[in-house]
Amino acid sequence: MKKLKRVLGALGMLSLLAIVLTACGSRKSLSQQDVLQNDRASNTITWGVKADTKLFGLMDVKDNQVKGFDVDIAKAITKRILGKNGQAKFVQVTSQTRIPLLKNGNIDAIIATMTITPEREKQVDFSTSYFDAGQSLLVKKGSNVKSVKDLNKTGTKVLGVTGANSVANIKKYAPKARVLELSDYAQAMTALKSGQGVALTTDNGILYGMASQNPGYKVVGGAFTKEPYGIAINKGQGAFKKEVNQALKEIEADGTYNRILKKWFGNVAGFNYKEAAR
Ligand code: GLU
């Protein structure tokens, strides 16, 4: 009798182990999942967008919606890939959190003022570029900073955002300056206003958005780098990337891209949006 109990007990343990193993086996790791297939099944694409960046992705507190060029492009691509009832879901990212959120599978793609760079290409894949920005400077009106050269002095403080390649760029173009990193663009603007730095540096499109909200500030120094924006996708998601590139082509061909470009940049004083167009 004792022997039988022991045998039955062992069999029970074995079947439990089998159940646990099957459950683990059926949950595919992120790299084994097909993002395009999952998105088609849920009829939803989850995009990482900025929520602190006027013109590209900014939270509207009145209706709790993020609005901007990147957001509208994401919506248009979603409709192209999933059909007109396809849903675009938005998750807020910052320059620092966007790659980790993508790699963890919290989002399917990043469309957030993100430059295609060789360093980033080691970690993620990019779509073809959809917007050509360039790095510039935002200063208080009347400032004697006129170009990036004026920042190359010991003791000069420049403001940037963690995770933005603008920080590394400014260290190259003005190596003597000290760069103070803030966690997002709203905080960087507050720091500029409180005099923590003589200039805020990032891409021209972003800075023109800030200048339009803050009339005491202006963009100076022209574009001293080239910042082609791409949509970042996890490596190994070739089918999804192909669809995104195809959708970009189609929205360009049917005039959707130009309509969105004009909607956000058509009336931004001083910004030549035609140079940024794809
Ligand atoms: N385009 C630059 C970058 O990808 C600056 C803008 C941003 O912080 O997102 O880092």
Automatic annotation (TrEMBL):
Keyword annotations: Signal, Transport
Position of the signal peptide: 1-23
Residues covered by the Ionotropic glutamate receptor C-terminal domain: 53-267
GO BP term, example: amino acid transport
UniProt-listed PROSITE patterns: PROKAR_LIPOPROTEIN
Domain Solute-binding protein family 3/N-terminal per the UniProt entry, residue ranges: 44-268
Gene Ontology cellular component list: extracellular region; membrane; outer membrane-bounded periplasmic space
GO terms, molecular function: ligand-gated monoatomic ion channel activity
PANTHER family in UniProt: ABC TRANSPORTER GLUTAMINE-BINDING PROTEIN GLNH (PTHR30085:SF6), AMINO ACID ABC TRANSPORTER PERMEASE (PTHR30085)
Family named by the database record: Belongs to the bacterial solute-binding protein 3 family.
Protein name stated in the entry: Glutamine ABC transporter substrate-binding protein
